[in-house]
Specification:
Blueprint (H helix, E strand, L loop, with lengths): L1 H30 L4 H16 L13 H16 L12 H21 L7 H33 L57 H13 L3 H22 L7 H6 L2 H34 L5 H25 L8 H13 L1 H7 L6 H30 L14 H13 L3 H8 L17 H26 L5 H20 L9 H26 L11 H22 L7 H28 L11 H8 L21 H8 L3
Helix pairs in contact: 1-2, 1-5, 2-3, 3-4, 3-5, 4-5, 5-7, 6-7, 7-10, 9-10, 9-11, 10-13, 11-13, 13-16, 14-16, 15-16, 16-17, 17-18, 20-21
Length: 652
């Protein structure tokens, strides 16, 4: 027994010395001051400690010679392992397998100690304590091995590689939001397709060859009740990886206050980044990370789900919090389509999130995700329904120059053009019978009732715009310009609707009715403007030269007055402008040609005739180009294309 006590004492001394050397080594590593020679020396010292044990096999009454030998051998392997230099996929694989076997040996020895003769209980307890301490060191090193293996074999993402194409089909991004320029709208709101199902892109986040080793580490640590240590290291590694992935995606954490202080252009750019990032996170990253966690921890019950949630919840809430801040921000109309983009990204990935975070453990993520989805949808619906009131409340009291198309008309029409791209989503949101923000994007119904709802709101918006344009037309002092303004704007509305996908919400009757409206304004303009100009050219049977000369002067003065003013008026649409010029020329040139014939018949001198038919035609072709120039400005009258001249003369 005395010899056995000596053996145990020696083992105790051996253990404490080695433990001390190990912890010194760890402290030096943490400080970064360990040289190669120092590390080698400490490793050799650890081996030498093992040789200090002196065992008299015949006197080892409590611990058998084989047990002590196995203990010493396993102890040496554990203390000698250098995790930072271990390559388990290369030459270090045998060493790693020996290391795992050494831990298994210590584990079995502890089990065998419990079955030994109770007469040596104290000595067995001391041996068991030593084994436990060695296992503690082994587990710490195994944690290092785990982190090292993950770090050496992870898939490294570069910004150029991020698989946005894995979820493409829903959005295309450009530069700006709704614009007052023709066809210059879109930005975070413009889309080329309307896929509603995200595509999952599968990828191995670590090299497949190391997964069995990672699984072995997990199972061994869990079997020794070091599940907390494994989970902590595993979660910490992947949490850092996800933070790095968010950085690659240009996602930064922002408080609600930060978001609300952002100028809209900057916030819109952040929303574009968010949409890309959310699609990549929910449709790619989380799917593959959960797949990896299940491969490694799937046989350990709920551990995989718990670790997955802990590793990802911080990044998920970083995304959700930003979207929440946007949803409760200023309800400006320019935000509608950005909110709808965010809503659709979340709606498209709702089923994925419900699957990834199934069960009680993930319920808080599912709840927050659904609440945010409902909030975004509710806010978007309110903005859309409020837009008509904002158009009606437009309070500009200055007439738009030259009778053209004001920014309000372009803005509203571009707004309507964009609505079609989101028709399914808006139909769903408008179909909600209550205003409690509840919606179920998984139950989409493309029934005619839904389409009628959207069509009703679009017709209402157009009617509000028309009423506002009528109001603005009254700001013009010139009644002729009022008709030009209304003709321009109604024609613009009809053309935009008739040549777009939103046409399905406006029937043929609406198109015909509004074509008649702008043509009526065109005829009213001609009647109001040119009937007075042509009065001097009317044939009342007189042949008195003095009267005819006066009428010639009166016509010239009246024509030049109208020309000087109306040359600066604007008809932006080329076809509409040419048609109105031709219509005016039909009337004016025919009357003027007839008048010139009467002058010639009455022998009125050409001195009183300022314009030839060709010159008058040329001036009429200058109308409505939006520039004010003198009648005396140099003009190359002969430069007009013969096709334009003949197109007018053919009417007379």
């Amino acid at each position: 027994m005395e010899e056995t006590e000596a053996v145990i004492a020696a083992m105790n001394a051996d253990h404490h010395l080695k433990a001390a050397a190990y912890h010194i080594l760890k402290a030096l590593e943490a400080r970064g001051s360990l040289t190669d020679s120092m590390e080698k020396y400490l490793a050799e010292l650890s081996v030498q400690f093992g040789s200090m044990i002196k065992i008299d096999d015949d006197e080892a009454a409590t611990a058998s010679r084989e047990d002590v030998y196995r203990f010493r051998s396993a102890q040496k392997k554990i203390l000698n392992l250098q995790p930072s230099r271990l390559d388990i996929c290369g030459s270090g694989r045998p060493e790693f397998e020996d290391y795992l076997q050494a831990i298994e040996d210590i584990k079995r020895l502890r089990e065998s100690f419990g079955r030994m003769d109770s007469g040596g209980a104290k000595k067995v307890e001391e041996l068991d304590s030593q084994a436990q301490n060695i296992l503690q060191i082994a587990m710490e090193k195994l944690q290092e091995v785990l982190i090292g293996v993950l770090g050496q074999n992870k898939h490294c993402f570069e910004k150029e590689y991020i698989p946005f194409h894995s979820c493409e089909g829903t959005f295309s991004y450009e530069e700006s939001v709704i614009s007052t320029e023709d066809d210059s709208f879109g930005g975070s709101s413009r889309r080329e397709s309307s896929s509603t199902e995200p595509v999952e892109y599968l990828m191995d986040f670590v090299h497949p060859d190391v997964i069995p080793h990672l699984k072995s580490i997990a199972e061994l640590m869990f079997s020794l009740n070091y599940d907390h240590e494994f989970s902590k290291a595993f979660i910490s590694f992947w949490r850092c990886e996800m933070e790095e992935y968010l950085t690659i995606l240009d996602v930064e954490p922002n408080s609600i206050e930060d978001v609300h202080k952002m100028e809209w252009d900057y916030l819109d750019s952040k929303i574009k980044i968010w949409c890309r990032a959310a699609k990549s996170i929910f449709g790619f990253y989380l799917v593959n990370e959960k797949r990896l966690f299940d491969q490694i921890l799937g046989e350990l019950g709920s551990v995989s789900s718990m670790c997955f949630i802990e590793a990802t919840n911080a990044a998920i809430f970083c995304l959700l919090n930003f979207a929440q801040a946007v949803a409760i921000g200023s309800p400006g109309p320019e935000r509608l389509f950005s909110l709808l983009n965010m809503y659709e990204v979340l709606a498209d990935h709702l089923q994925i999130v419900n699957t990834l975070f199934a069960g009680e453990a993930g319920s808080f993520i599912r709840t927050e995700f659904n609440n945010l989805l409902n909030r975004l949808g509710y806010t978007a619906k309110c903005i859309f329904l409020e837009f008509g009131n904002q158009v009606a409340s437009n309070s500009s009291t200055v007439p738009f120059p030259n009778g053209g198309i004001p920014p309000l008309t372009k803005y509203v029409m571009n707004y309507i053009m964009l609505v079609e791209s989101y028709s399914d989503t808006l139909n769903l949101l408008l179909a909600e019978e209550t205003d409690n923000g509840s919606s179920n994007p998984t139950e989409k119904d493309n029934s005619s009732d839904f389409a009628d709802r959207l069509s009703h709101h679009l017709h209402s918006l157009i009617s509000i715009l028309e009423a506002k344009l009528e109001e603005k037309s009254n700001l013009y002092g010139d009644n002729s310009l009022r008709h030009i303004f209304m003709m321009n704007n109604i024609h613009y509305m009809v053309k935009k609707i008739n040549h777009s996908k939103v046409r399905k919400y406006f029937d043929d009757e609406w198109i015909r009715e509004h074509m008649v409206k702008y043509k009526q304004h065109a005829r009213a303009y001609e009647r109001v403007t040119w009937s007075n100009v042509l009065i001097p050219l009317q044939d009342d049977g007189t042949k008195a030269k003095a009267i005819l000369k006066k009428r010639c002067r009166d016509f010239t003065m009246s024509f030049e007055e109208k020309w000087k003013i109306q040359r600066g008026w604007c008809i932006p649409d080329n076809e509409l402008r040419e048609n109105l010029r031709i219509s005016i020329s039909q009337t004016v040139i025919h009357a003027y040609r007839t008048f010139l014939s009467r002058l010639a018949a009455c022998c009125v001198c050409d001195t009183y005739i300022k314009y030839s038919v060709e010159q008058l035609e040329s001036d009429l072709l200058d109308l409505f180009d939006g520039s004010y120039k003198s009648m005396n400005h140099p003009r190359r009258r002969g430069s007009l294309k013969s096709s334009r001249r003949s197109s007018i003369l053919s009417f007379v």
